[in-house]
Amino acid sequence: MKKIKILCLTGTRADYPRVKSVLTKIKKDKKFDFKIIVTGSHLLKKYGYSINEIYQDGFKVHKKIKIFNNDFNSLYGMTTASARCTFGLAGALKKYKPNLVLLTVDRVETLGAAVAASLMNYPIAHIQGGEVTGTIDENIRHAVTKLSHFHFVANLDAKKRIIKLGERRDRVFDVGCPYIS
């Protein structure tokens, strides 16, 4: 039996807990072959070099994509970080050729990854789309939702919102927040 190849991107200590329980289940299931790509603030000493949490949880990191320069707190810095993530993930997609790309939430890394996967015709599963915050994160989250093919939402309101955005009802799953599972 051919394994299903999943490529997961994580960029912050905020998004990693939302995908950790999912990755733990995928790791235990022999029908999956998954690779973790680490980027964003996980790779910044200033923010605790949280990539170490991923290693401590027993996961292997298959690729690191450095996206932030010294100006990462500026609007320009966030924009160029997203572009670097798109470029870096495109290389990983070309190399690994996954059956599915797994993304979480609403960061610039998520947007950059969604752009790369979408343009290269890889299906995207998005965790925790459909939520409302009233910030730029909401715009990014909804953009990633529109680029995604499968939606794993935290609540019924998010599910309804994604369906209103025009996504297929049969591809939106109210699974709760994986952070608390």
Count of strand segments: 7
Radius of gyration: 15 Å
What is the molecular shape?
globular
* Mean pLDDT value: 94
The H-and-E topology, N to C, reads as EHEHEHEHEHEHE
Q: List low-pLDDT spans.
A: none
Q: In order across it, which strands form the biggest sheet?
A: 3-2-1-4-5-6-7
Main beta sheet, described?
7 strands, parallel
Structural class: alpha/beta
Per DSSP, the total helix count is 6
Our measurement of the CA-to-CA distance between the termini, rounded to an integer number of angstroms, reads 29 Å
Helix content: 40-55%
The proportion of strand residues reads: 15-25%
Structural write-up:
With about 180 residues, this protein is α/β, with parallel strands linked by helices. The protein is about 40% helix and about 20% strand. It contains six helices and seven strands, in the order E-H-E-H-E-H-E-H-E-H-E-H-E. A seven-stranded parallel beta sheet has the order 3-2-1-4-5-6-7, sandwiched between helices. Strand 1, helix 1 and strand 2 (about 30-40) form a beta-alpha-beta unit. The longest helix is centred in the middle third of the chain and has 22 residues, at about 75-95. The protein starts with a strand and ends in a 7-residue tail after the last strand.
Short synopsis of the structure:
Helix content is 41%, strand content 20%. It has helices spanning 16-28, 51-56, 75-96, 108-119, 136-147, 156-164, and strands at residues 4-10, 32-39, 61-65, 100-104, 124-127, 150-153, 172-174.
